Amino acid sequence: MRSTKTARSGEQPLLSSYNSSDDEERGRRTLRGGNRRGSPLPPTSTSASQTPTYSHFAASDLTTSRPTLSRRSTNQLRSRSPTSARLEAKRKYKYAAFFLVTSLVSFVVQTELASYIQHDLGWNKAYAMLYLTHGSWVFLWPLQLLFLRLQRREQSWNQFWNNHKQILRKTAQMVERQEARIPRGMGANRSPWPYLARTTAVVTTALTIAGSSWYVAVSMTTPSDLTAIYNCSAFFAYAFSIPLLKERLRLDKMLAVFVAIIGVLVVAYGGGSASDEAGQAGPATRFAGNIVIGIGSVLYGLYEVLYKRYACPPDGTSANRSMMFANTFGSLIGVFTVLVLWIPIPVLHVLGWETFEMPTGETASLLLISVFANMVFSGSFLVLISLTSPVLSSVAALLTIFMVAIVDWFLTGRPLEAPAILGGLLIITAFGMLSWSTWKEMNEEQRKGPVDLSSDSGDED
């Protein structure tokens, strides 16, 4: 994130740089060469009393000519230095670590509550629960807007709102073009919202089918098969990343994904319960269930990669801008879910496959908490993918298998079996391997241009 210069480089609160300073703006004007002959940009005023405006440009713009730079202008160029690149990667990794922990905790809360609601309270409405949880994502952007507004209370509402709209519009254009800078006169005024509407429809459909497959297959196959096959989405995320994200085949990543899947298989089948579960479903039914959950696993891996490829800002974008847009796109998924995906509910009711029934009492209260936990998890997970990669996020999500087992141990008093511990350690090892690989990649990407130097507080066209 290229934000206002602080006393200690690399230290700033989460989403705090919602405005740029006068010093940075004067530095930018120097870089623009407002009084230099032959500058492609019009002269700008440097009056000290002028309210600072907000600009968004890439470091690659500075390589076409070499004007005489002031000290402040030189500070802007430091974004291409190895030291600055390392600081930016470190900042992104800190944010990613925060949202990783948040997603893990919220997922465990959601899982335990959903299990209790379905099995103990008897409200077993799979698609209705999926609709409510995914529909709750619509609140991600309003909550983010409230948080940002509380940070910028000194601004008038009109100024704050106009700046926020400029950021989202500019970021959406960056997402559509997959460029960290939108040159003037090259579609900068084109509305990005039709593109986002199409992308939201495709990504949400893949997500909904993948999520629904779990609920369809849960009564057809064994819990071990369900867990093992569905969590192979980490492999498919890596497989789809190669053609869609142009990722290189890396031995360390392949090994980490392999170790993670082995860990899942050990947890799923190592407890000796697979043979007991096998008799619960006939071979044909179990095979059909495995096919269904296999399709869901492929689609979930595809959903993660499609989101990263078509709905995330490109490499070189600041961390604040990436996080802000991740929550905004999450709200778009929520809007599509609420407005479109209610249609199967009456269809399922008429066919008798899932009778609609409003939750009441304790069920309604716990369902509300579960839905909120899912919203927190989903928002954090979208940010995590945006800041890192679908592969790392998928393997990180596998950590929840071990965490849920630990929580069950405390809740039920049933100690962890050796396979659960071994599988959990393998997943943790795989996550550590992927984290190190991703850290190296982030450092490499931050040393490349173009780099987003904007303060994430606004833009000027």
UniProtKB/TrEMBL annotation:
Residues 44-53, 60-74 have a biased composition (Low complexity). It comes from the Eukaryota. The chain crosses the membrane at residues 95-117, 129-148, 195-216, 228-245, 254-272, 284-303, 324-345, 365-384, 391-412, 418-439. GO terms for cellular component: membrane. Keywords: Membrane, Transmembrane, Transmembrane helix. The keyword Transmembrane helix applies. Residues 189-268 form the EamA domain. Residues 1-20, 75-84 have a biased composition (Polar residues). Residues 1-84 are annotated as: Disordered. The keyword Transmembrane helix applies. This is EamA domain-containing protein.
